[in-house]
Structures are given as structure tokens and as C-alpha cells.
Amino acid sequence: MALDELKDADNTYTVDNFQYIVNKDFMEKVKPIKVDFTAFGFKVSSGIDVSAGCSSCNTPGSCCS
Question: How many domains does the chain have?
């Protein structure tokens, strides 16, 4: 998560008066995205299961692509 400017390849979402900018292609890979604010800062979770880790970034469909 970082500050960014809106680009043509992005969608915007406004939730509780916060505007989120997400790349359209990235959103298709990771949806749904959930952003929470905790006592320790922002917590971002998504539909990608990264608990198994990456075995090979050269494999189509891996978490690295």
C-alpha cells in the first residue's frame, strides 16, 4: 500500500471517506481486497493464499506473476 496518483489503468473505490486506487489488472488477480486499520496500522488482506509460499516464479499462475 502506497500513496499514488490515478492512472488510466486504475479503478478508484471510496470507503468511509477514504479513496483507494487499485490497478485494474492487479485487482482481477487478488480480489477481494480488504483493508482494516488496527492498533498497529493498516492490515491488507486479499483473495490470494500466500501461506504455501512461491515455489517458482517462472510457473504461469504462480504468486509471483
Answer: 1
Contact of 65 with 56, CB cutoff 8 Å? no
Amino acid 40 reads: F
Q: Which domain holds residue 19?
A: 1-65
The C-alpha atoms of residue 48 and residue 33 are separated, in whole angstroms, by 9
Q: What is the pLDDT of residues 21-55, one digit of tens each?
A: 999 999 999 999 998 989 999 898 998 876 666 55
Per DSSP, the three-state class of 29 is: helix
Contacts of 18 (CB under 8 A, 6+ apart): none
DSSP state of 24: H
